[in-house]
Design brief:
- The protein has 326 residues and is of the alpha/beta class.
- The strands form two sheets. Strands 1, 2, 3, 4, 5, 6, 7, 10, 11 and 12 form a ten-stranded mixed sheet that branches. Strands 8-9-13 form a three-stranded antiparallel sheet, with no helix packed on it.
- Strand 8 and strand 9 form a beta hairpin.
- Helix 7 packs across helix 10 and helix 8 runs antiparallel to helix 9.
- It is globular, with a radius of gyration of 19 Å.
- The mean pLDDT is 94.
Length: 326
């Protein structure tokens, strides 16, 4: 049975400003208190953690001397947890509703066949949805389901998703470690989709929990169209496809087409240099990622068709508007 004594919440902070305090306050108000809350600060320079160690004395703080990335910081925190069975990941600009953890635990107990869970994410300060789980397309793109749809128009039930957004997710610690955690080479962006992909290949499904609600600011520390965001997301989606895609050769033409269109699109946005650099660096690392692919596919425990059926296969969908590309 999952209890509060078996839950640790991990928050990775980098220049989140006043959002971090509000995030921690939302954890204080949980109807089900976690056993541990660990904040890993990735060498912030904005003073966002100032005074918080005294204000939240029951929480744990880890300060890194340099920014090691979202993936590394989360993995580090998980490795420091030896007394909890479940991990909740929460972004510093995500504010959990009081019953967030309680509803995630309820779902974990009701659906024990699932090992990771996604939240119902609202866009903070608006009447729109930020996401109800991640969708993966066979071309290698991924996006948040229901992104920017009016909240009143979304009536999702509990159901399977390809992967949960790491801004507010819940996962069994042993399973997280078993599949290798977040890929630290990603640094940030797309690491949660990549993790979800590896979970699917091992037969561990993910479930969307509609009453586990958080309000997410989104892009609070890095703009969606910043060079940083474009570089890491465009590089990492290639690495994730190469490592994980079971129908690699069959869907490769779609993957190449998507990347070519992405290059043209970012060029029109004045970001050609960043996008081309991302793709070039992705290709330079191809031998390393291909070696990972051999291991990942060797350890796959479900048939390729099972995983592919959980993806979106509509040819035109990745190029439609109103999606939060990851």
């Amino acid at each position: 049975m999952t209890t509060s004594n078996s839950i640790a919440v991990i928050i990775v902070n980098w220049n989140a400003g006043c959002y971090l305090r509000k995030c921690l306050q939302s954890l204080n108000a949980q109807t089900l208190k976690p056993a541990r809350v660990i904040i890993v600060d990735n060498a912030s320079t904005d003073g966002s953690t100032k005074g918080l160690e005294e204000e939240f004395k029951h929480y744990e703080f880890i300060w890194l001397e340099i920014n090691k990335g979202f993936a590394f910081a989360n993995n580090l925190a998980v490795k420091n947890i030896d007394d909890c069975n479940w991990i909740a990941f929460l972004n510093p600009d995500a504010f959990a509703h009081p019953e967030w953890l309680e509803k995630l635990v309820d779902a974990a107990e009701k659906f024990p066949e699932y090992k990771s869970f996604g939240s119902h994410m609202l866009k903070h300060g608006t009447d729109k949805v930020d996401g109800t789980g991640d969708i993966y397309h066979v071309c290698g793109s991924a996006w948040r389901r229901d992104y920017e749809v009016l909240s009143l128009e979304v009536d999702r039930k509990v159901g399977e998703i390809f992967s949960p957004c790491a801004a507010a997710s819940f996962i069994r610690k042993d399973i997280f470690l078993k599949v290798g955690g977040f890929d630290e080479n990603f640094f940030s962006y797309f690491e949660d989709v990549d993790l979800g992909f590896r979970l699917q290949l091992k037969g561990y499904g993910s479930l969307y929990v509609p009453n586990a609600i958080v309000e997410h600011v989104g892009s609070a520390t890095t703009s969606r169209y910043s060079d940083f965001a474009i570089y890491h997301s465009q590089r990492n989606l290639v690495w994730s496809y190469v490592r994980n895609m079971p129908g690699f050769w069959y869907f490769l033409p779609q993957h190449i087409l998507f990347n070519l269109i992405a290059l043209i699109w970012y060029a029109l946005k004045g970001k050609a240099g960043t996008a081309f650099q991302a793709k070039w660096h992705a290709l330079k690392e191809f031998p390393r990622v291909w070696a990972l692919r051999k291991l990942t596919q060797h350890e796959r425990t479900v048939d390729a068709s099972v995983v592919i059926k959980k993806m979106n296969r509509n040819f035109f969908v990745p190029y439609l508007s109103r999606k939060r590309l990851l």
